[in-house]
């Protein structure tokens, strides 16, 4: 027994357990063991009747798998799973997305026109766009490199059997005919046919929508995208690479995607409207400058370009992409894999986070505190049973590993296992048929005491007392019924009058859970940020409440047993609003809880690491998985914490808030420019006057009041809580700001036209209008930069100083065609700008009070 136990433990370690407490116990074998192989195995219980068990699987001989030569031959023939699993967009996609945009096309055409009519300083906007595009490409490539490196760390590495040994390989190294081993929590990465089954249960809900796990026997088909919820086994691959349609679906679902983002969709909506405004404005400007004013064609074109270019908020898209990319890089340094970029934004909008206890609030490992024999059970025999259970599982989860460490296989010399009922979250227990050295065979169960015992059992009182101390308690019990008996754990009421209880309690196994040291601070952070935390666990409710109480979670003293929760969505949502800690939650209930909270308008994040969390993770607005979690959870989660640190979540929230808050800030700047540019163009067309600006003027103004400061503001720290209705809120401020800026500028321009005369009058008029627009736009920047810090004040003052340098430097005066003439109009411009600044202050404060959201 010792030699066999050491051999099977030499295989791959199991994923950490999900909530529940019971353990899968595969059949023992001679030689190198595996979860898949011969032995009498029993399948799963249905979700409707967790106690029911299907007929045993047919024993199958153990296969050694392919040889090294066979693998090499099939690889040479191209029969390899060569579908690239990409965690990010390709380099070509990134370049294409940054270069081939509608606005780059518009700006490119205008730039080409200016290159023809000249001078070059009126084409500065083209070089700015080129620089912006290059910056966007470089930043996204940096983010791609970060994502790809992290994806390699968190990549699924299936176990295949080759030359009779189990080895881990990369997904794209699997070949046709490989024998792939499966265990609880493993994701099926390619299509195949089951060869060995040891109570193998597969969840295919991600493919079929059917929530109940499917019991797989030899000869059954397994499809990529499904995952194992109980038992073990092995399958032979039948379709690999691009031949497997399901594998293509799995790749497409797990690759880097730009899923729904309020920021991205909002900006796209704005850009769509701007595109429609640009066309008539351009036509109107060309006609007005050619027909109404006696301009040359070249001058008319320059003025038209000067009116069109500032309408395009090209930097807004760039800075949004950069903000997301920088967020990925920053989080990557903390070993946080963001599988979908908008997940950063999504977690910042979350107002409810559902936490799985095991692996999230507690560490995966546990220790056996004590074993308490019940009803006079022989302690030595109890130790032997526990050793037999722990020593026969090649994939021990945290609970069973703790038992195996405390009771090594040597203590169960001579014990053999002839049947098994693997653990499932629906049952919350596992079972095994063990034969003792003397030949006596017994059915032993290990799992949740409140599930295995009838209400009122004396052992339950002791269990409750231990649970209140935050300890996890398993019950070792002997059953008088067969493993495939539907009444395996039911009491007399279910079995008929006069029937004996199905289970005989033998011992309580008390396990100590290790709290994550960072969990208390993280929960405190969520409370301070008005994010409601809900602990939903498969463990005993009292035990979960005790753990939550140790972490000072509000509401931990009022725990709820999920078996008492109503089934209706409205009633369930109401119960969730009132409660904080929920125990004995089934996987389907976790999914229902997420849906119920969402039905109340909550944005829900779900954290977990076990296979029983997959359905809830998939349905949540944001799914967060631990790096040590099962392959299935990592496949459906948007965020994977590769360092397994719950403390990383505040960083993700903070990064999302930085992105959202800062993009909203800079959007105010860019869209204010768009509004005043459109309005100025309309005023020029209606008034039949020359357009006041050349492209170089608006390049100067845009660079100093928008472009340069927006770059710094977009990457600055920002802890403001994310709010919905991005477009509506930005336009509330941008529209009045643009109207004020355009009105002030056009007023000064008309005054200057009546003040100046002579051949150089237009340049003097333009200079006065430029000064006015700069001062008003600078005040908009000063408002957007609040609350002030030393560097924000310095940023505003630096932009103002740069404009002064242009005004007093002869070379720059000539280059930008800005020369203030006299004192009357410059001071008039300052006065109008000051009045406009006061109007802006009043308007922004009124809007803030009138529309507080």
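Sequence proposed for the structure above (853 residues):
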């Amino acid at each position: 027994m010792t030699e066999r136990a050491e051999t099977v433990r030499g295989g791959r370690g199991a994923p950490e357990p999900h909530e529940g407490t019971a353990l899968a116990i595969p059949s023992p074998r001679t030689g190198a063991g595996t979860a898949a192989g011969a032995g009498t195995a029993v399948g799963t219980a249905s979700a409707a009747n967790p106690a029911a068990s299907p007929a045993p699987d047919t024993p199958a001989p153990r296969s050694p798998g392919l040889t090294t030569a066979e693998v090499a031959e099939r690889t040479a023939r191209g029969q390899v799973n060569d579908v690239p699993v990409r965690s990010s967009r390709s380099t070509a996609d990134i370049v294409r997305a940054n270069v081939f945009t509608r606005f780059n096309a518009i700006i490119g055409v205008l730039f080409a026109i200016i290159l023809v009519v000249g001078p070059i300083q009126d084409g500065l906007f083209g070089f700015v766009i080129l620089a912006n595009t290059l910056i966007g490409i470089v930043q996204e490539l940096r983010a791609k490199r970060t994502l790809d490196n992290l994806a390699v760390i968190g990549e699924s590495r299936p176990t295949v059997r080759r030359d009779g040994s189990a080895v881990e390989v990369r997904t794209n190294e699997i070949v046709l005919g490989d024998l792939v081993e499966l265990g609880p929590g493993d994701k099926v990465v390619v299509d195949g046919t089951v060869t060995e089954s040891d109570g193998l249960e597969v969840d295919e809900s991600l493919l079929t929508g059917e929530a109940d796990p499917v019991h797989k026997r030899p000869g059954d088909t397994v499809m990529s995208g499904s995952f194992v919820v109980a038992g073990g086994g092995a399958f032979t691959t039948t379709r690999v690479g691009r031949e497997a349609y399901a594998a293509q679906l799995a790749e497409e679902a797990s690759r880097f995607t730009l899923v729904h983002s309020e920021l991205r969709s909002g900006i796209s909506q704005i850009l769509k409207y701007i595109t429609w405004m640009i066309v008539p404005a351009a036509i109107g400007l060309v006609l007005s400058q050619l027909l109404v004013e006696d301009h040359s064609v070249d001058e008319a074109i320059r003025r038209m370009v000067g009116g069109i270019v500032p309408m395009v908020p090209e930097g807004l898209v760039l800075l949004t992409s950069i903000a997301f990319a920088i967020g990925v890089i920053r989080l990557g340094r903390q070993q946080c894999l963001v599988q979908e970029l908008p997940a950063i934004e999504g977690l910042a909008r979350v107002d409810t986070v559902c936490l799985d206890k095991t692996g999230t609030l507690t560490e995966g490992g546990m220790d056996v505190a004590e074993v308490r024999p019940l009803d006079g059970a022989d302690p030595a025999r109890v130790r032997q049973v526990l050793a037999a259970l722990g020593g026969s599982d090649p994939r021990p989860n945290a609970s069973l590993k703790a038992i195996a460490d405390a009771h090594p296989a040597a203590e169960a010399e001579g014990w053999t296992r002839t049947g098994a009922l693997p653990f499932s979250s629906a049952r919350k227990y596992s079972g095994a048929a063990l034969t003792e050295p003397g030949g006596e065979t017994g059915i032993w169960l290990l799992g949740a005491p409140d599930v295995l015992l009838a209400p009122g059992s004396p052992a339950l009182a002791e269990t409750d007392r231990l649970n209140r101390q935050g300890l996890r308690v398993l019950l070792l019990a002997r059953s008088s019924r067969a493993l495939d008996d539907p009444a395996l754990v039911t009491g007399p009421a279910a079995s008929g009058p006069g029937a004996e209880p199905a289970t005989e309690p033998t011992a309580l196994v008390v396990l100590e859970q290790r709290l994550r040291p960072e969990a208390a601070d993280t929960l405190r952070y969520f409370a301070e940020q008005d994010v409601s935390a809900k602990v939903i666990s498969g463990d005993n409710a009292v035990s979960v409440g005790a753990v939550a109480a140790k972490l000072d979670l509000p509401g931990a003293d009022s725990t709820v047993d999920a078996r008492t929760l109503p089934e209706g969505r409205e009633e369930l949502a109401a119960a969730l609003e009132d409660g904080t800690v929920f125990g004995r939650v089934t996987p389907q209930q976790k999914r229902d809880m997420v849906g119920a909270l969402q039905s109340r308008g909550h944005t829900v994040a779900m954290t977990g690491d076990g296979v029983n969390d997959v359905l809830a993770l998939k349905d949540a607005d944001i799914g967060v998985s631990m790096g040590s979690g099962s392959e299935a959870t990592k496949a459906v989660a948007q965020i994977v914490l590769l360092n397994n640190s719950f403390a990383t979540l505040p960083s993700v929230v903070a990064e999302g808030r930085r992105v959202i808050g800062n993009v909203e800030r800079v959007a105010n700047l860019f869209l204010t420019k768009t509004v005043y540019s459109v309005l100025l163009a309309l005023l020029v067309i209606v008034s039949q006057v020359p357009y006041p600006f050349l492209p170089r003027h608006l390049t100067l103004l845009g660079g100093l009041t928008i472009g340069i400061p927006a770059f710094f503001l977009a990457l600055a720290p920002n802890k403001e809580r994310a709010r919905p209705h991005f477009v509506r809120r930005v336009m509330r401020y941008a529209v009045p700001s643009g109207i004020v800026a355009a009105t002030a500028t056009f007023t000064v321009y008309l005054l200057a036209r009546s003040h100046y005369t002579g051949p150089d009058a237009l340049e003097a008029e333009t200079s006065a209008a430029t000064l006015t627009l700069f001062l008003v736009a600078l005040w908009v920047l000063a408002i957007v930069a609040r609350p002030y810090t030393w560097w924000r004040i310095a940023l505003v003052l630096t932009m103002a100083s740069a404009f002064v340098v242009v005004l007093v430097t002869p070379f720059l005066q000539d280059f930008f065609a800005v020369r203030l003439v006299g004192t009357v109009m410059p001071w008039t411009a300052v006065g109008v700008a000051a009045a406009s600044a006061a109007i802006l202050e009043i308007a922004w404060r009124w809007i803030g009070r009138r529309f507080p959201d």
